[in-house]
Amino acid sequence: MRVIWLGVVGVLLGAETGMVFFPGGEFRRGRTYEDPETKVDWYPNPLRDDLPVRTVYVDPFYLDEHEVTIGEYAAFVKASRHRSPPVWTDGRPPAGKEKFPVADVSWEDAGAYCEWRGKRLPTEAEWERACRGLTENEKYPWGDRAPKPADARFDDLRGPVAVCSLPRTRMGLCDIVGNMWEWTSDWYEREYYTAAPERNPPGPAKGMYRVLRGGSWFDKPDFLTCSHRSWARAGERSPNIGFRCAKGFGRR
Predict the structure, then answer these.
(1) Residues 184, 228: contact at Cβ < 8 Å?
(2) What is the C-alpha separation between 86 and 119, in angstroms, rounded?
(3) What is the CB neighbour count within 10 angstroms for residue 78?
(4) Rounded-to-integer distance, Cα 156 and Cα 192, Å
(5) pLDDT tens column, 130-187
(6) 6-248: which CATH architecture?
(7) Is the C or the N end of the chain the one with fewer CB within 10 Å?
(8) Strand partners, 143
């Protein structure tokens, strides 16, 4: 395990309210742990999409400390007259759920909200950098230990919990795994890691799906790792897909 001590300085110097600062630097992206099932010939190829492990560099950036909440999204809908999630009755957010993560938002909806806030969706590489935090080669944000209910909201049919109800990561992020899948800016491509640039990989130029990260309240522990990749069509709206925004250091 290699500790990136500069990350501590980055947190102390972060100046964006409600966001966590991540310093620029290299990290090993991809699945660094053994998964015996991927060695079986019949195992679905898409589940080998977090290989090969490669060292990439990302510029410094900020990431929202928690997933965008229903209350925050409602303010955006009211101010911009953007369409509301289809599950909101008559366009009104559910009462008493202001601190819960917003769901049923498409990739376009998420991007529009981030733009309204002067931010953007994180790249897939930024998301993984943030999930890993100060360390490398660990399976989950807290280490290699299997998830417990006290770590994250997962495998629970009752749905998500209010943001920051569970312990933060070592970098100060809430619910970076579990609770909600999170949209990233990248198109999805199964073999992208093989040919991706080593500096600020932006994702493929085109594709059919957008990358999701982090797992959700509905998912099993295997989906909560820092390296696991999922995907959905940009127009999909789902009760277990949400998002958080990013911002470049000194720019959007």
Answers:
(1) no
(2) 24
(3) 12
(4) 32
(5) 999 978 889 999 999 999 999 999 999 999 999 999 999 999 999 999 999 999 999 9
(6) Alpha-Beta Complex (3.90)
(7) N
(8) 140
